[in-house]
Design a protein that fits this description.
There is one protein chain. This protein is of the alpha/beta class. The protein has a single domain, classed as Aldolase class I (TIM Barrel, Alpha-Beta Barrel), CATH 3.20.20. It contains twelve helices and nine strands. The protein has a nine-stranded parallel beta sheet with strand order 5-4-3-2-1-9-8-7-6. Strand 8, helix 10 and strand 9 form a beta-alpha-beta unit. The longest helix has 17 residues. The protein is globular, with a radius of gyration of 17 Å.
């Protein structure tokens, strides 16, 4: 059983929901990333999604796009992201880390090499936004052989056939995009989420994490009524953008703790 699967099994046994925050590796500057990851854990995160910066992030709204631009300006590459995970692992061997990014950097490295280096660094899951499940059977096998969960996206527009394709090869969790749009959009409809989650559950027993449009404790709590976990990204990036110099780490920890309290209430 993978680390992510074991985590969700324990959360279910404890009657709790997962909290999956997203930060972009290298933003606001590379030397802060590992410290921010530890702050997420102290605040109550269960899984960390670490974004691999990319120049053309098709699923990301302007907030996360800006974070990728800042990281790229600092020279952050896929291999540098793996080094950050390895540095995080020096003091935290338990918290699952998922790399979230796009196909180009992985293709440049080569999928076999990527699988090997991801395992060596301590990565537990990989979500490549522009890898559709029906074209990724071999990639998913490579990841699982390296003990890394291949995670796939589903959306309100996903057909029953696409849901089944994702259910066949995904492991760890399925990431359900809660709205038609990019990250950071504000038109989250929790009733729509509640109506579609059962369709996914009918196809798979894999846990379902819901993201896009979750901005605060109230929306996180509402989504958690039907999902197994909530993913928060753009709101965190905005917090890091707005935090006064020297206060980003503590501000992040405090915000995550607020979400954790809401989920546990």
């Amino acid at each position: 059983m993978s680390k992510i699967s074991a985590l969700f099994q324990q959360l279910k046994a404890d009657g709790k929901k997962g909290l999956v925050p997203f930060i972009t590796a290298g933003d606001p500057e590379p030397g802060l990333t590992v410290e921010l990851m530890h702050a997420l854990v102290r605040g109550g995160a269960n899984v960390i999604e670490l974004g691999v910066p990319f120049s053309d992030p098709m699923a990301d709204g302007p907030v996360i796009q800006r974070s990728s631009e800042r990281a790229l300006n600092h020279g952050v590459t896929l291999r540098r992201c793996l080094e950050m995970v390895a540095a995080f692992r020096e003091h935290d061997a338990q918290t699952p880390v998922v790399l979230m990014g796009y196909a180009n950097p992985v293709e440049q490295m080569g999928t076999a090499q990527f699988a090997s280096e991801a395992k060596a660094a301590g990565v537990d899951g990989v979500l490549i936004v522009d890898y559709p499940p029906e074209e990724c059977v071999d990639f998913a096998k490579q990841m699982r052989a390296a003990e890394v969960d291949p995670i796939f996206l589903l959306a309100p527009t996903s057909s029953p056939a696409r849901i089944l394709e994702a259910a066949k090869i995904a492991s760890g969790y399925i990431y359900y995009v809660s709205l038609r749009g990019v990250t950071g959009a504000s038109h989250l409809n929790t009733q729509d989420v509640a109506s579609i989650i059962p369709q996914i559950r009918a196809a798979t027993a894999i846990p379902i994490a819901v993201g896009f449009g979750i901005n605060d404790a109230a929306s996180a709590k509402a989504v958690s009524n039907t999902a197994d976990a909530v993913v928060i990204g753009s709101r965190i990036i905005r917090l890091l953008e707005e935090a006064p110099a020297g206060e980003a780490v503590q501000s992040l920890e405090n915000f995550i703790r607020e979400i954790r309290v809401a989920l546990d209430s």
